[in-house]
Amino acid sequence: MNILILGSGGREHALAWKLSQSRKVSRIFVAPGNAGTHSIGTNLRIDSEDFDAIKTAVIAHEIGMVVVGPEAPLVAGIHDYFLKDECLVDIPVIGPLKSAARLEGSKDFAKAFLVRHNIPTAAYRTFDRTNAMEAGAFLRTFNPPYVIKADGLAAGKGVIICNAYEEAVEEVNAVISGKFGEAGEKVVIEQFLKGIELSVFIVTDGRSWKLLPEAKDYKRVGEGDTGLNTGGMGAVSPVPFAGREFMSKVRERIIVPTVKGLREEGIDYKGFIFFGLMNVDGDPYVIEYNARLGDPESEVVIPRIKSDLFELLEGVANGDLERRSLEIDDSCVTTVMMVSGGYPGSYEKGFEISGLEGRDDCMVFHSGTKYSDGKVLTSGGRVLAVSCRGETMKDALEASYRNAGSITFRNLYYRKDIGFDL
Ligand code: AMP
Ligand code: GLY
């Protein structure tokens, strides 16, 4: 079968890499892809939100399955678009319908869902223009720090955490007044949870589900978890503090009620669910849902899946996931994200990357790269995810750092302390 993967980052490169290992997969197309996916399949110059262009490509390349990497096409309704089109209706889309992608696309929707299904999460209230004047009094019910979130998608920037009450009130007003455009028409204020974060993933056909390896992502740009938030500067899997007892709480208190809740609400969810969790003294709380896999988490999670990923996705599409097997490798995988100096602020791109060849002990997943005239150039903030396997996390990290140390491009930067806190 030919497969189309939507997206252009390290997650999509890792998906393409893994799916290309399946005997059942013939050709892989990636829209728009990057220099890494170019080495595995065919990149299509199509924006992943241009549904009409995607339709034309699906028909022209006889695509049998579409795997959606990022959230934007899901929130914009790519799955619904396929179901409504008689030429596309039989082609499975791995990723939820628009109504379910709201778990990621609307924080207010996600919080209300969590509360309806009794799933542990921070206490909250949602405000808009009509009741913004009550936000100050609600903030007073919490001790600092204060957590303020724009309801909609805000390119990862929509969460503000501040220490001073006056600043929190100002931020709430700024968000409602349009700081994040439409994404901030509603604003969620919630209790601050103190703990350590991790990312847990399942794949589901809407009835049964399989637990994928968990991961810990390092979101801040600076060492010691300092500086601005980024898309993720590195990741490790497994997560040492996610032991048997903690993960059984995650299953019982979070995963089971989420999948059951979706069914009860008549939502036929087919795809990945990413649970952004906080471990608060051994108890898991949901910080956020995402309707997709994480990035850079995918670059450590996917290499630990031993089974044929295509067969699992086929199970999602056919609704017989329960009968499919999922075997996980018990080794450790770590990834170090090499970024353009200046990221997540402004940075230059278009620099040639050297040292990519001959890395047998390592999987270099491309995030922001472009293939041009036989060269691989930087084309984004996050450039390469250097993923390595080891018997222990220490071995894996040593290999990731050894490999990152011999790949070069101008103005590169990476954190030297991934895994430091574990
Ligand atoms: P989100 O986009 O909801 O994942 O939030 C971005 C980041 O803000 C999270 O990864 C957390 O580090 C932090 N955060 C969000 N909500 C809370 C909360 N209720 N308590 C503490 N930290 C939070
Ligand atoms: N690394 C976090 C995310 O993919 O949202």
Describe the fold and architecture.
The chain is an alpha+beta fold and about 425 residues long. Among the domains are: about 1-100, Rossmann fold (3-Layer(aba) Sandwich); about 130-185, ATP-grasp fold, A domain (Dna Ligase, domain 1). Helices cover about 30% and strands about 25% of the residues. The strands form 6 sheets. Strands 12, 15, 18, 19, 22 and 23 form a 6-stranded antiparallel beta sheet that branches. Helix 6 packs across helix 7 (about 105-115). The longest helix has 21 residues, at about 245-265. The chain is globular, with a radius of gyration of 21 Å. The structure holds adenosine monophosphate (AMP) and glycine. Glycine (GLY) binds near residues 217, 232, 294 and 295.
CATH class value of the domain at 2-98: Alpha Beta
CATH architecture label of the domain at 2-98: 3-Layer(aba) Sandwich
CATH topology name of the domain at 2-98: Rossmann fold
Q: Which class best fits the helix and strand makeup?
A: alpha+beta
Distance between the termini: 41 Å
Helix content: 25-40%
Radius of gyration: 21 Å
Residue fraction in strands: 25-35%
What sort of overall outline do the alpha carbons produce when their principal axes are compared? globular
Number of strands: 23
Are any ligands bound, and if so which? adenosine monophosphate, glycine
| Largest beta-sheet characterization | 6 strands, antiparallel
Count of alpha/pi helices: 13
Low-confidence stretches at least 5 residues in length (pLDDT < 50)? none
Mean pLDDT: 96
